[in-house]
Specification:
The protein is α/β, with parallel strands linked by helices. It has one domain: P-loop containing nucleotide triphosphate hydrolases (Rossmann fold), CATH 3.40.50. The protein contains 7 helices and 5 strands, in the order βαβααβααβαβα. The radius of gyration is 15 Å and the shape is globular. The two termini are about 15 Å apart.
Amino acid sequence: MKIILTGAHGTGKSTLLEPLREYYQLPTLKRTVRTFWEDNGVVDFEKLPTDVRTVFQKQLLLNQLEKENTLWKKGFVTDRSVLDYLGYAIVSSNMSGVDLDLYKSLIRERLLQYDYIIYCPVEFPAEAEYLRAHPDSQKEVAGVLEEHLALWLRDDQYCIVRGSVEDRLETIKEYIQKAQK
């Protein structure tokens, strides 16, 4: 079982990770972006020139795919999805043309391979935090994600979760149970 949590920064993806891991007994992929930044000496992504951000966005996607591939047969739950990288690439880099088209194709193809896609919409403003995108970009990133979910997937291919952690977990469990029937 491969479960991805997707959404802009500050939407509660990481908060849902541990309860889902426990309930479904799955390995987790977490902090993939923060770990990548730390491993590469990035202190403030916002201060990087846009062309450097573009290079990093490509590397982040490849890093995510590599980590997912190591767990693919076992299954996993992750608090970052390949779709998230598209949101940040469009909002905070200068990726365009053929590069962006290839990036989108790769992301779309991978999205179709997950078992369960859980989208966490913006319900409250993001707080500034170490190695997190600027809070002001939260809604813009969410808009890109929502646009591509609607463009690439049917409504029954992903689940939108809202409310408290408990409400969200219940919605996810119901969605997965229904999909397994």
